[in-house]
Each structure stands twice: as structure tokens, then as C-alpha cells.
Amino acid sequence: MAQHCQFCGKTPVTGRRISHAHNVTSRKWHINLKSVHAVVGGVTRRARACTRCIRTGKVVKPAPRAKAS
Q1: What's the Cα-to-Cα distance from 45 to each of 15, 35, 37, 65, rounded to whole Å?
Q2: Please, are residues 22 and 39 in contact by the beta-carbon 8 Å criterion?
Q3: Computed from CA positions of residues 58, 59, 62, 63, in that sequence, does the dihedral angle turn out positive or negative?
């Protein structure tokens, strides 16, 4: 699935757009996904997470690497 959060499983929601003349067409509400580096299963990998998961702390970011001197 392309548009889904890998942490909470949130997906786009479908519904109907209704005009003033009551013409009915389908539409989608997409979720706000961001590509982030996250620790998944002890390994740092790229993941797609919704902004709600990033804000609430479900996404564990990797520790910064030490500078090589």
C-alpha cells in the first residue's frame, strides 16, 4: 500500500464531494506522510510516518553519529 503510515496503519479516507447543485463525485482525504529515518527492530531504516506519530513519539529517531576526527 503506497499511502499508509508504517507505525499506526492510517490510510486515506474516501467520501463524496457534493456541489451546490448536488452533483456527487468521489474524493479522498490523504494523510500527511513524511519520510523519516527511524529505529525499527533495532535497525535504522527509512520509514513513512504520519505527522501524528512523529509528534506523539511513536517514531524513535536514531541517535546522532559521532563526528570522525
Answers
A1: 34, 10, 6, 14
A2: no
A3: negative
| Mean pLDDT of the 2-25 span | 96
Percentage above 70 pLDDT, the chain? 99
The answer to whether residue 1 scores a pLDDT higher than 70 is no
| Structural element, H or E, at residue 54 | helix 51-56
42, 36, 7, 16 alpha-carbon torsion, rounded to 10° = -170
How many other CB atoms are there within 10 angstroms of residue 54's CB atom?
A: 18
* Dist CA 38 CA 49 (whole Å): 9
Host H or E run for residue 49: strand 43-50
Separation of alpha carbons 5 and 32, rounded Å: 9
